[in-house]
Amino acid sequence: MGTVVKVENLGKQYRLGQVGTGTVYQDLNRFWYKARGKEDPYVKIGQENSLRNSGGNQFVWALKEINFDVKEGQVLGIIGKNGAGKSTLLKLLSKVTYPTLGEIKIKGRIAALLEVGTGFHPELTGRENIFLNGAILGMRKAEIRSKFDEIVEFSGVEKYIDTPVKRYSSGMRVRLAFAVAAHLEPEILILDEVLAVGDAEFQKKCLGKMKDVAGTGRTVLFVSHNMAAVKSLCDSAIVLVNGRVQYVGETTNAVSYYLKGDSENQNKKTFSSEYDKPEFSLHQMSLNNFSKSNEEPLVENEEIEFHISLTLKNENSKNYHITFHLINELGEALFSFYPSSNGVNLRTGLNNLTCTFPKLFFQSGTYYLSLFIFRNKKEAVIIEKDIMSFTVVDGGRELGVFMGREPGFIRPQFHWENKSV
Amino acid sequence: MNAAEEHWDLIIKPKTSLFSIDFKQVWRYRDLMLLFVKRDFVATYKQTILGPLWFIVQPLLTTITFMVIFGNIAKISTEGVPHILFYLSGIVMWGYYSECLTKTSDTFSVNSDLFGKVYFPRLIVPFSIIISSMIRLSIQLVLFFCFWTYYYFYKGIPLQVNSTVFLFPLLLILMAGHGLALGIIISSLTTKYRDLRFLVQFGVQLLMYASPVVYPLSSVPEKYKWILLLNPMTSIIETFKYGFLGIGVFNYQYLIYNFLSLVVILFVGFVVFNKVEKSFMDTV
């Protein structure tokens, strides 16, 4: 099987900040350099892409030195954190924007699905939109006409096909849009995270359809945050970090590489002398899955242990109480928890506290911990908001169950019964 | 690597050539172009009572306004033809050009959401605008010919129709071409410099007064005529009036100048558009 997509030394540079007066000068300068046959002066500068460290540079490389090949029939996953360059890569592959350096060579017809329902016009009917959307995605009219019934059936909106789309519910719109997209028949298909839409049932249908597509020997490039979907659809994957390819290989390895990189420094925090107070000193906090080290990613479907070690210097240990608050991504406190609820108290000297969360307690997501130590039950000796954060990831649920995230942040396991009368 | 593997259907790389618009691609997407035309046409007048009648109401009301202000108050010459025919012909022709110009000049800013998500030859959008405006133009021309027939046959007004009417397809191409060319240049520049959008909004209105819409070219002093003739619409409107109404100035040289300037400006337009097409998503 031959190579159908070949990416060579691909780079994309973006300019940071506002487009304003300065750009006229830069444009002229650039033009002047080019007119003299010199290289673009702004290509040389520019820093690595990173969301945190903005530096003083105006130019940033969203992608740099990207090289990879895709073979015919391969289903390649592209994974990476927000801002790693996934979307930029997709945009380049789909010709929405052009690279600054390097090239992409493609064999065969290519179609990109960066969003469902691109170009839907609210005033037009479902029928009219099927044709419009199909044509935007690169289908010929005759092609759409021949698949029209199939599309309508797949979408499940037969009854409303002659109603303007503006009267559709958002779910219906998505169904219709996906139905059109699913009937595209390019040799190479580029998919963004279109799975994150619709209800569970429809997601299942979409995934099934995508598996079918992947199964027919078509080449698929799939970008997603959803590790379970990547694992089940793709046979290999590349991991992007700060605009560079960090890992290319088999999906399972790539996913674990990604997850590891993601949570490396987060699950452990060692405290410096800053937390060496007259009454106590904090040493370390860490989280890990039961029987695993804190360097592995935290998965939701295993027990999670939380450790903290501190030294209480005051002789009167009974007067001291420690409490934690668990904060979600939105900054809301979910609950507080403390060892004294189990009759575990602090003692003078070194304390090594461990708290175990049952498996399937957290939803996947990022959480923050706040620490409080009280003296005489009311005076706070320390209040540290968001002292550390940790990320719980999807443990790789079975495909076809539910691809999205359940609502809420925790999912306690309750006792259920169905009594026979 | 063997020879077969060397063949690639598509190579995406930083575009360097000045003129690399792939007209074959544009042709391949012709269905999309027609669907855009249909969308523009259908969507504009959905949920209106008069529907496409608005195409007629607009020029009619403008004509009446012009008849009152320029015909009766300012008493500007209409070279002896009924006011309504004089103004309506100018308004309809100018209307087509200005619509092509203003709508294509918004190509990138209006469609940025769409362009950011999916690739198709970007020229499809301005082309579809040219065509959907043509539908509007033909409805308005029907209106014009209704009045024309009324005056010619019922009122017996001697309108000197001549063979110049057969130049109409050429006039149409010239108008569409000029509107398109200037429109895509402006749309390319507005992706970076929004200032131009404000300029276009009132610039088009002002430009109308630099075209023989409310006055005949013959009433302009000889030494200033050349300024008006720089405006491509001047010779187009005059030729139209000459053919259908038997008034106005008709000169082959004007049309040849017009055509040559179209070739130049259209070439510039395609070059600029081609350059912006690949990078506008980063600046828009």
Broad shape of chain B = globular
Query: What is the assigned CATH homologous superfamily of the largest domain in chain A?
Result: P-loop containing nucleotide triphosphate hydrolases
Average pLDDT of chain A, to the nearest integer?
A: 80
Radius of gyration of chain B: 21 Å
Please give the number of β-strands of chain B: 1
Classified by CATH, the class of the largest domain in chain A is Alpha Beta
Write structural notes for this entry.
The complex is a heterodimer of chains A (421) and B (284). With 421 residues, chain A is an alpha/beta fold. Chain A has a 6-stranded mixed β-sheet with strand order 6-7-8-4-9-10, with helices on both faces. In chain A, strands 13-19-18-15-16 form a 5-stranded mixed β-sheet, with no helix packed on it. Helix content of chain A is 23%, strand content 33%. In chain A, helix 3 (126-136) crosses helix 5. Chain A has 2 domains: 3-10 and 63-261, Rossmann fold (3-Layer(aba) Sandwich); 268-393, abc- transporter (atp binding component) like domain (Coagulation Factor XIII, Chain A, domain 1, Distorted Sandwich). Chain B has 284 residues and is an all-alpha fold. The mean pLDDT of chain B is 87. The longest helix of chain B is centred in the middle third of the chain and has 31 residues, at 124-154. Chain B has one domain. At the A-B interface, strand 1, helix 1, helix 2, strand 5 and helix 3 of A face strand 1, helix 2 and helix 13 of B. Strand 5 of chain A pairs antiparallel with strand 1 of chain B.
